[in-house]
Design goal:
Helix content is 34%, strand content 25%. It is α+β, with helices and mostly antiparallel strands.
Length: 304
Amino acid sequence: MTRWWTAAAVLCVAAAAQAQPVTAIIVRHAEREAVAGNDPPISAAGRARAELLANMLRDEQFSAVFASELQRTQQTVEPVAARLGIETTIVPANDTAGLRKRILAQKGKTVLVAGHSNTVPALISALGGPGGITIPETEFDRLYILAVPSRGKPMLTSLRYGAPPAGPSAMGTPVPIRSFEFTRSGGVAGAKPVTGRLELTGEEWTVTEPGGTYRRNVRKEEIEPWIRRVNGERLAALVSLIEPRGADAYQYDVTLERGDGRSFLIRTSELAAGEVAAKMPEAGRLLEWVQRESDAIASARRAR
């Protein structure tokens, strides 16, 4: 249920902070589409959240609106900027110092900032607010009001707006994976691509090589402890944020197919697998399994 009391709280706190030299209202970007690439747009749920944000802040006169170079932050604040008739100022996500300088230059005014789960806490800390703030990957409803005085300690108010992600396809609640196809390419010179497919038929898991002879029945205890917990949307979003690296390393394309018919392309490299595992252990186990099975298919192919 949408929490409309949040709107009143935001407006009251923002109005009270007008006496401060600078007031920054800082949000994480709204929900994004679960697609490959590092710059996905916001989803339908994200667009609804962006419109809600604009409605909540309709009485606030922002002197500037800031977003990162990624479109999901820009689209989150677009309705607010459009209402005000001003252009969103783009500051690279990794330029916290530059963004801090721009905000503090807005003396006696209020600004709106859209950032990311890692850049929002960094910005609050850089402006003199508390450190140690964490925003889970699955949360898009965080809103912070930071009043920065010319002297003394800034005052931070933390709120949430709108409804949290809900339903079986929410990023926090996985819909079971029923099958996935994987391709390994690159690696040492002359290495041929390897393709495999894992599929659940009835109660049995089977991995095969499309167009080849490789086939293996997979024990439930080998795969079900982790595959039931893999969240396709969240994994696709996570991998999109990890910079591809290692031109000579193996590259993996994994297409996850869920029980509700939706599919997600995961594209990563063997050098990034450790970073994925650290942030989502069940995804790390999936990639480890794909690596081992790719080796097995390649070995079987050489033996033929």
